[in-house]
Design a protein that fits this description.
A hairpin with a 4-residue loop joins β5 (68-72) and β6. This protein has helices at 28-36, 86-93, 111-116, 124-127, 155-161, 196-205, 243-246, 271-283, 296-300, 330-344, 384-397, 429-438; strands at 6-9, 18-24, 42-44, 58-61, 68-72, 77-81, 98-100, 134-140, 146-150, 170-180, 185-193, 211-216, 228-235, 289-295, 318-326, 351-356, 371-379, 401-402. It is built from twelve helices and 18 strands. α10 packs antiparallel against α11. By secondary structure, it is an alpha+beta fold. The chain has an eight-stranded antiparallel sheet with strand order 14-11-13-12-16-17-15-18. Strands 5, 6, 7, 8, 9 and 10 form a six-stranded antiparallel sheet that branches.
């Protein structure tokens, strides 16, 4: 009989699925005992990354490290354990007039995971990555020591941990800054673009906006290649809001939360259904430009509104492929990527284009650099690996990079962090795969 801590584990993409040891503790003393008694460990937050990043021979789950330590409401500084979710932080901070400086497309990730992936959002060109607002964290190293890491103290560990995908140890607590807001609403402009030339022009014209993102119909060809809708937004001031929203500007009404109750059959998602979905999504906005006020959940976390939406891709699961192409080569690189996807027939319901600004050079493990990034969801099937290999070649040709948080299939991570892997006790299946692919 297997010990009860051996279990099947997978991340949000339901690919791959592994059967490994996973433990969770809320005592630093017990965590130290766990670390000292194992040769290979990887920390895991809420399992909302898409790839195999937090999967390994032995997994430490930070879910029990879920306590708040302090909230300085005057200066907007919060301290909490690493397993606290962004959703928990928003629940207490938004009514107090604070928001996350940087948030990815789901609020259900842990703070520790936000540091390990150095997550970015729709505002990287304006406000950078999550790490820009982290002041310090406590890290348990492979010998069980707990050290404080900041820009001034243990700075080498601080920067190695930022975007380091768990290689340096287990993040225990984090202190970081929040931004002031006057309302829980976003002033949004939504603009349709007929092709890749137009969407790139719109991004350039919108660089003064804090938040920009575009949905792209990735199966279009010819003159419609890159057909898309740009959404740009700013946190709304109270005086801007319509009267019905201005009465309680920091509080949102509770919404119904639909659930996907079962895994969809494999035949439901195919090139035809993706084409139909993309057509309907593009056509639902009848005007060229629409201005509106929407709540922050709708703007930042549209998919979080549907519980278990990942089941739509069936039991075989899906991957999210995300890359960044340097800005000067962005249009040509994206053109080749979109043409390759359209030719393959492996369409994506969710294809999201964003603009990255210059990244902090000290955060050498971080994914973003100045350029354009495209993220796409693909259902796992027998043809997908061939497509990923082709996309990898294009990314490498244009001097791009793959996002480790999403990766579970690429030949090469195209990052500069391999030097840190060899001597680390904290190793994931992803780290081993990258070593094997680059040896």
């Amino acid at each position: 009989m297997k010990p009860n801590f051996i279990q099947k584990v997978t991340n949000w993409g339901n690919f791959p699925v592994v059967e490994k040891e996973m433990r969770s503790e809320d005592s630093f003393k017990k965590i130290k005992e766990f670390v000292l008694s194992h040769n290979e460990i990887i920390a895991r937050g809420n399992g909302r990354c898409y790839g195999d990043a937090s999967l390994g021979e032995t997994i430490f789950s930070t879910k029990k490290l879920n306590k708040f330590i302090s909230f300085d409401r005057l200066n907007g500084i919060i301290e909490c354990e690493s397993g606290v979710l962004l959703s928990d932080i928003l629940e207490i901070s938004v009514p107090q007039g604070y928001f996350l400086y940087v948030t990815p497309g789901t609020k259900f990730i842990s703070v520790g995971g936000a540091i390990a992936s150095d997550v970015h959002g729709k505002n990287h060109h304006a406000e950078g990555c999550f790490s820009e607002y982290v002041t310090e964290f406590k890290l348990m190293t492979e010998n069980g020591d707990i050290i404080t890491c900041s820009r001034e103290e243990n700075s080498d560990k601080f920067w190695a941990t930022i975007g380091g995908m768990g290689l340096t140890g287990i993040i225990l607590t984090v202190k970081f800054k929040l931004k002031n807001i006057q309302s829980a609403y976003i002033r949004q402009e939504s603009i349709k673009a007929e092709n890749l030339d137009e969407i790139f022009r719109l991004f350039e014209e919108s660089e003064s906006w804090t938040y920009t993102v575009a949905w792209i119909d990735c199966l279009q060809k010819g003159k419609n290649l890159g057909r898309s809708i740009l959404m740009r937004g700013e946190h709304a001031f109270q005086h801007e809001l319509p009267q019905n929203l201005a009465k309680q500007p920091l509080r949102l009404k509770k919404k119904l939360q639909p659930t996907v109750p079962f895994y969809f059959p494999g035949f439901v998602l195919n090139a035809l259904t993706v084409k139909i979905f993309n057509l309907l999504y593009y056509k639902k906005q009848t005007k060229k430009e629409v201005k509106s006020f929407i709540d922050y959940e709708t703007f930042f976390y549209p998919l979080d509104a549907i519980t278990d939406w990942n089941k739509i891709y069936g039991k075989s699961g899906f991957i999210q492929y995300q890359m960044v192409i340097p800005k000067e080569a962005g249009k040509e690189g994206m053109k080749q990527i979109l043409e390759t996807i359209a030719a393959s027939g492996n369409g994506s319901f969710l294809a999201v284009l964003k603009l990255f600004g210059k990244n902090n050079p000290e955060a050498y493990n971080s994914f973003p650099f100045e350029g354009y990034t495209l993220a796409l969801d693909f259902k796992v099937n027998s043809k997908l690996k061939k497509l990923v290999d082709k996309l990898d070649d294009i990314v490498q040709q244009f001097g791009g990079r793959i996002y480790l948080t999403k990766d579970s299939m690429s030949r090469s991570s195209l990052t500069n962090y391999l030097k840190n892997i060899q001597s680390s006790k904290f190793v994931s299946l992803q780290h081993k795969r990258i070593i094997n692919n680059n040896s």
